[in-house]
Specification:
The complex is a heterodimer of chains A (285) and B (242).
Chain A: H1 3-34, H2 48-54, H3 57-87, H4 89-93, H5 96-100, H6 109-120, H7 125-132, H8 152-176, H9 179-188, H10 193-208, H11 210-221, H12 225-230, H13 238-246, H14 254-284
Helix pairs in contact in A: 1-14, 2-14, 3-8, 3-11, 6-8, 9-10, 13-14
Chain B: E1 4-13, E2 16-26, E3 31-36, H1 42-50, E4 57-62, E5 65-66, H2 72-75, E6 77-80, H3 92-102, H4 107-120, H5 136-148, E7 154-158, H6 166-182, E8 187-191, H7 194-200, E9 203-208, E10 211-215, H8 218-223, H9 229-241
Parallel strand pairs in B: 3-8, 3-9, 6-7, 7-8
Antiparallel strand pairs in B: 1-2, 1-4, 4-5, 9-10
Helix pairs in contact in B: 3-4, 3-5, 5-6
Classes of the chains: A mainly alpha (285), B alpha/beta (242).
Chain lengths: 285, 242
């Protein structure tokens, strides 16, 4: 056996031992716990925890709210990233901007959430500036953007966190996929600059980044620190809702928390599987 | 009257002159083959004619009117790269239909024209395939079809067969010549290949030292030692005799 084969086997083993096995064990444990098979207070197999979870409207509200946050955040972030990457592509390749664009990526989500809190809360900078400028008379008049019903603070922070990543991705894709050549070709075939953008540049960039978009959708949907700091008690995003159940004083809630984790895990896996099957079919076509 | 007229075109990039006072004219439905070394400014010349690069001085005149200030999408001059550059998100049919859809033609007419073009380029069986599923030669056929279907006033070909193997290259030369005559296309054809320039061009020119030399006939081109045609012919003659 040559060295290449050994390295391949070792790589696969590392992947299985450090990635697949821990996830499978964790998932299996949560699954058994949720069916009452494991756990100190459980008495044996039961569907009670799953029934309770599935018929709790709060769970579906939480899932819907997480989906809404991910959809709005990602849509706005992608639109911003596309505009910036397409119109500032030269500056993003060289000079100050090419370095500055990496800076937001070094801030952890919690720091960014705290920054949003300082900026957007009723006692934050924007509110104080608004008073100084005479837009409002007292802090209470400033709109609720933190811990609000629409998750504006969470969306704002998610956009801050993911937009730089998509700008870097699209700037690199633009050069790697030779989009300047496609742009010239499209114009030469009679497309106006708007048509070139709409029918060539944006579809190519979106198509090439579809996997990343799906992964980031799941990332935002499952985010924890940001909604914990900036979200409301109701509705909660799915991770906060699950951890809340897991850490409550009532130990009988723990199997439900595991059932929610399993359900969410299955939903994500199912969606990914459907997406992969559909994408590979499109590729085959 | 000349169909396409290039008058005193010059271009400099970062203080480096690329083209210097280029002038020539081309009649309708004729092909001008241009030879030149890498970096001699051939691509720049084509891009200036297509409106993709702005000339420093000079004029591009098409059908008696200056088009120098016209944006590329209004010129109806198609510039084809060496790479076929098929749009990766569209299948073969939609790639060919691209220019027609921009004109907002009725669906039925688009379908009809694209189907005819698919048959002209022998790609009927591949209409629903994505670009990644095609060979280099097939991609280049589609690129031709996509350009020719919009009936461009001038077709600019920048070493279109440069990346193909010799057999596919020969087939593509025949296909292009056939389509060019059928559709009476006016074209500028850039190539490194002496033989190809002679096959494809009705007129021949060479860019050297930022200047374009045009030849009155193919014989003049062959007789000029600097084109290398004589050397090439001598080489094959020697091989044949030995």
């Amino acid at each position: 056996m040559n060295t290449g084969k050994y390295i391949a086997i070792i790589s696969k083993s590392i992947f299985v031992v450090f990635t697949l096995i821990p996830v499978a064990l964790g998932f299996g444990y949560a699954f058994l716990y949720s069916f009452g098979i494991l756990g100190i207070l459980n008495d044996g197999f039961t569907l009670a925890h799953w029934k309770k979870v599935l018929f709790t409207p709060t769970l579906w509200e939480s899932l819907g709210f997480s989906f809404y946050i991910a959809l709005i955040s990602l849509t706005i972030a992608i639109v911003f990233a596309l505009i910036i990457a397409i119109y500032l592509k030269q500056k993003l390749q060289k000079g100050f901007l090419s370095i500055a664009i990496y800076l937001p990526l070094v801030f952890p989500a919690l720091v960014m959430a705290f920054f949003s809190f300082l900026l957007l809360s009723k006692s934050g900078w924007l509110s104080r500036v608004s008073i100084r400028l005479g837009f409002i008379n007292e802090l209470e008049q400033f709109p609720n953007w933190i811990n609000d019903n629409y998750g504006i603070g969470i969306i704002f922070t998610s956009i801050l966190l993911i937009t730089p990543f998509f700008i870097i991705l699209y700037t690199n894709l633009y050069h790697h996929e030779k989009l300047d050549n496609y742009k010239e070709l499209s114009q030469s075939l009679g497309a106006s600059p708007i048509n070139t953008l709409r029918k060539v540049l944006i579809p190519i960039l979106l198509r090439k980044s579809i996997f990343t978009i799906v992964l980031f959708f799941i990332f935002v949907m499952s985010s924890y620190e940001v909604p914990l700091l900036l979200g409301k008690q109701h509705p909660q995003m799915i991770s906060v809702f699950t951890v809340d159940k897991l850490q409550r004083f009532n130990l009988l809630d723990i199997p439900q928390a595991y059932a929610i984790s399993c359900l969410y895990g299955l939903l994500v896996l199912g969606t990914m599987a459907l997406f992969l099957v559909k994408h590979s079919k499109i590729k085959l076509k | 009257m000349s169909y396409l007229k290039i008058q005193h075109i010059s271009k400099t990039f970062k203080n480096e002159p690329v083209l210097n006072d280029i002038s020539f004219s081309l009649e309708k439905s004729k092909v001008l083959s241009i030879l030149g070394k890498s970096g001699s400014g051939k691509t720049t010349l084509l891009k200036i004619i297509a409106g993709l690069i702005k000339e420093d001085t000079g004029k591009v005149i098409l059908e008696g009117k200056s088009i120098s200030k016209m944006p590329p999408n209004h010129r109806n001059i198609v510039y084809l790269y060496q790479e076929p550059l098929l749009f990766p998100h569209l299948n073969v049919f939609e790639n060919i239909a691209f220019g027609l859809r921009l004109k907002n033609l009725p669906k039925m007419i688009i379908n009809e024209q694209v189907t005819t073009m698919l048959s002209n380029i022998n790609m009927e069986a591949h209409a629903n395939k994505m670009p990644g599923e095609l060979s280099g030669g097939q991609k280049q056929r589609v690129a031709f079809g996509r350009a020719i279907i919009i009936e461009p006033k001038v077709l600019l070909l920048d070493e279109p067969f440069g990346a193909l193997d010799s057999e596919t290259r020969d087939q593509m030369q025949i296909l292009f010549k056939d389509l060019q005559q059928k559709k009476a296309i006016t074209a500028l054809f850039i190539t490194h290949d002496l033989k190809e320039s002679l096959i494809m061009g009705d007129q021949l020119g060479v860019i050297t030292e930022k200047k374009l030399t045009l030849y009155a006939s193919k014989q003049d081109f062959i007789d000029d030692e600097s084109t290398g045609s004589k050397k090439e012919m001598d080489f094959w003659e020697k091989i044949y005799k030995s």
